[in-house]
């Protein structure tokens, strides 16, 4: 690390790559934090976790006992063991005792993306509540036709304030906070909608995954969905090959080395590629998808395509908005190229996902790792290769959700055992030096003790 | 160096292998020590030990897991590296040792599995209290088991602390009570002392008045003298004194005696007891100033001695009276007993009232003489005459029938007619004339009063069989004569070995003796026969064994010779045929897994085999067809 600091000082290392290097170093050393502990205020399974997007300080958790709580993850409320363990307590909690609280389990709790003055909870009691954080009162609420599975707000939206809600019902509804009414009813799914996600690059694009195994893309300015992902439409690699014809002709053995070299090239110049990608992708787009764009009512064969065998239980759009990760009840993870709408055929190592509930995935900022709740553990997969890079064991029951805070490089996980665990980078050298004095006192009790 | 390490490598895992391959409930301490000393040697040893132990924990055998857990605890408490390795997969360890997952229960020997679980929980608590602060995983596991699964932790430390606290509180409370008592004593001491002193004085006066008469007979009996003599001698002496003593209650000194008796009772029942209490309070209390306590204690002890001497004097002088008094008591008891079968309707007699007691007694004698319903009535008859003699009375008492309490005792032995409408009930003449003076004749009443009894069996003490069991305990079955498992119930010693029958009692009936002797003779003869047969067969067996040995040797030689030429399979078959290898009865890990055959299994084997079930089915079928033939229109 000191070497990098030196290089940074000399100007040999660009500031952002210095930051990236430090961050990835820290991420690779994530482990169960012994010095940071969140005292869970919930009596049921934690279903949803989110750190606010503005301060990166307040963790919002929704639980199965109908309670939602906010925790301060920066400032500890109390310390234990001579300052060794910091305990973060809830700032407030709204539960069934609250006169406007949810009656049944909260399935989704999200922050208003612009500031921390509002948050939104969706519950199995068919309601979506919008809360004022400071007064902990409900400002608006929306009655849904069925259990609410997931709510989402777009973090890039500048012209709308819509809450997309996936419910038991086949229709996805968009609730407008400003007017307190449904603005859209998107129909197309043939079963309940487990998960909804806004695009990170386009404020009008919404992605929904349903229990029927379909992932649909909606442009909310138009009627109907414009894309249904098909698991059988595949491409090797992260972008559709430049020369589609040649790659189709060429054997797979030939295309794979191409791919890897392409990968290398891309990782080195990822940042700069952002703008280009959106510009030149339309060139590569096949004719068929162009046609779909133009015609909202799609061909029935396309309309019936599925992304997973079984329900789609988790969706996550990468930070740059170019890729979509989906998890299905068939215990599969799939990486989709949003531009082409193809399955990229990344083989994520075999896992088992829980099938009964939706899960919440998390992706690191540079889209290198995806954190997936796999039964009682959380696994971190390398997005591009699909290899397991880390396994986080600590929960005693199924994990439902995880949230990666890219500001602190910390991972928060919530599980059926009612715990919210913090996974943080192991303390770095200077941090240890800072705490040296306290540490010496404490570590006496944790030393080898061979009496015989 | 490397070589040494490699050598050590094998060593720690083989040591663990050896240590966990045992059926004992503890790890062999020598092996454990060896493991510890090897593991201490280097970090790679710890790593290896950890891997080996986790492998052992995954074995499908609770005993192996249990022993592995014991070793894990030893290393856990000692090595930091081991701890950091273990906490990574802490949930796995808990699943394997506590077995809280439904789909992964603890493996086979269930008794050991429960032991494993309790031990694991105990260890978890210990680890949490000592290292929990450093390892979040341990805290998590502990909290999960405690708060989510609601496991009961032994709570050793807290329990000890609580018990200590309780004990302290109890002591505090008792001390407080003592102090309170002490305070009241301090306030009332003059009162108490005065009362006792007064009683002593009164007794002294009474005795003084009585004394001049008897001083000739009893030359100042000091207590030492009394104590020094044996009780029997004392009794004889007193008996003689009693004979010679003319100090009977007469009409003139009766009052005096009464007073004396009362005072004696007072001393005995109240003063002495209360003094004793106070003294014990004083001994135990720890007041601020000890002077008052000590002085009071001294005074009280003096007082007590004084009281005792007075009491003894009292007994000495007026023993006869007191004796009669006691007699009276016993006699009254008799009266109460007798009252069950005697007069209840007579007014209750105050205990100390002589005259009325006597009248009651006479009354009873009279009435009981007339009762003829009981065999015991004869005994009751005799009571009046020999009421003085204790022995006769007790023998009579023993024979007297015990009646249950009831209305029938109202007119026990009353031989008079009674009005039918005894209670004066107003009977309206609904059904005709009413004879208000209707009388039930005495014979009829007696007839009605005849009571029926249920035969009550005498409770028989059935002694346990006490034959030694395999488990080291004694058979606790209680059978009257024969235990179904261990034969006739015979007296046995503490270890369950039969005690030879005691030599025949002298007063046994000669017939029985003869019979027994005859039996013994027959038995002896038979035994001799059996021995002979056995010896013969032994010889036979020996011969046969020798032959077999020779044959075996021959065979093996032949086989060895032939092996070169025969095919592999043939030889293997021969080896397998070589006879089943009888297992030793020694306990091994696999034998622990085997299911024990319970009596239920044996019964099931008998009842559920094909023949039995066929038989029953036939029976049922037969009955069914019979029924159907008999009632063809019923389904």
TrEMBL record, chain A:
Biased composition (Polar residues): 247-262
Region (Disordered), start-end ranges: 247-300
Renumbered ranges of WD repeats: 39-74, 99-141, 186-221, 305-346, 392-424
Gene Ontology BP term (one): protein polyubiquitination
InterPro entries tied to this protein: Rad28/ERCC8/Ckn1/ATCSA-1, WD40/YVTN_repeat-like_dom_sf, WD40_PAC1, WD40_repeat_CS, WD40_repeat_dom_sf, WD40_rpt
PROSITE patterns: WD_REPEATS_1, WD_REPEATS_2, WD_REPEATS_REGION
SMART domains in the cross-refs: WD40
Pfam families: WD40 (PF00400)
Keywords associated with the record: DNA damage, DNA repair, Repeat, WD repeat
CC per GO annotation: Cul4A-RING E3 ubiquitin ligase complex; nucleotide-excision repair complex
Cited PANTHER family: DNA EXCISION REPAIR PROTEIN ERCC-8
Name of the protein this chain belongs to: Wd repeat-containing protein atcsa-1
UniProtKB/TrEMBL annotation, chain B:
Subcellular location(s) of the protein: Chromosome
An example molecular function term from Gene Ontology annotations: RNA polymerase II complex binding
SUPFAM superfamilies tied to this protein: ENTH/VHS domain
GO biological process: response to UV; transcription-coupled nucleotide-excision repair
Polar residues composition-biased segments: 343-376
A cellular component annotation (GO) from this entry: chromosome
Composition skew (Basic and acidic residues), residue ranges: 1-10
Keywords of this entry: Chromosome, Coiled coil, DNA damage, DNA repair, Metal-binding, Zinc, Zinc-finger
Presence of the UniProt keyword Magnesium in the record: no
Region ranges (Disordered): 1-23, 342-376
Keyword Chloroplast part of the UniProt annotation: no
Signal peptide range: none
Stated family: Belongs to the UVSSA family.
Official protein name in the record: Uv-stimulated scaffold protein a-like protein
Species in which this protein is naturally found: Thalictrum thalictroides
